[in-house]
Design brief:
single chain, 194 residues, alpha/beta, Rossmann fold, binds flavin mononucleotide
């Protein structure tokens, strides 16, 4: 598999919205310091939800029974191998959108591998940029961040997050120069320390 320095994953079903702008801003920042990037958008992939069968826990290579039926495994392998991974996602009902959550549930096979192999050193980064329409709310990002932390533990990744509020219309982030600067500052700071 050909690997870029930074894998950037857009997690919104809305094409050209705020999460997509965050993806492009992230890519621009990474390229500006000489890194290579791969961008992908979950809406372009087929991801079947986890069946909860737990066969992955018993299979010798922790393989999911759905692996050959969709592209979930392909994306999880990329997340597993990337040096740095960055997720850009909207908040839907105080959580992550359904397709992103479907991918997360499909990572149960990686959780089983992690538990069985005991390799639990979080020595790599996952950058998470979350975008919400609401301006207020202490708990707006809480559930998503908790899920992201436990999703990424089995990939030995520690999360760093940037949470943006009050971005609802499709072009809100595009029009907000200060917020886009916040994104590039966050990315440059995190990439310098990775
Ligand atoms: C189904 C749905 C649920 C949403 N739930 C929330 C929410 O719980 N809290 C919030 O602040 N914004 C919520 N929003 C607004 C989105 O977070 C906001 O529009 C965001 O900018 C969308 O990102 P995108 O442009 O990348 O798709 C929701 C939007 C949709 C479509």
């Amino acid at each position: 598999m050909n690997l870029a320095d930074v894998l950037i994953i857009g997690c919104s079903p809305r094409d050209g919205g705020n999460s997509d702008i965050a993806v492009h801003e992230t890519a621009r920042s990474a390229v500006s310091i000489g890194l290579s990037v791969e961008k992908l958008f979950l809406r372009d992939f087929r991801i079947i939800p986890c069946k909860g069968c737990r066969i992955c826990a018993q299979s010798p290579d922790f393989r999911c029974v759905l692996s050959d039926l969709d592209q979930g495994r392909l994306i999880l392998e990329k997340i597993d191998l990337a040096r740095v991974v960055c997720f850009c996602s909207p908040i839907f009902f105080y959580h992550l959108p359904a397709q992103f959550k479907a991918l997360i549930d499909r990572s149960q096979s990686y959780y089983e591998r992690w538990i069985a192999t005991g390799n639990q050193k979080a020595d790599r980064k996952a950058l998470c940029i979350l975008v919400a329409g609401r301006k207020k709310g202490d708990a707006l990002f809480r559930g998503s961040l908790l899920t992201l932390k436990y999703f990424l533990d089995p990939f030995n990744r520690k999360i760093s997050e940037l949470c943006l509020r009050g971005k609802d219309g499709r072009n809100d982030l595009k029009k907000d120069t200060a917020a886009r600067l916040q994104v590039s500052d966050f990315i440059l700071r995190e990439l310098e320390n990775s």
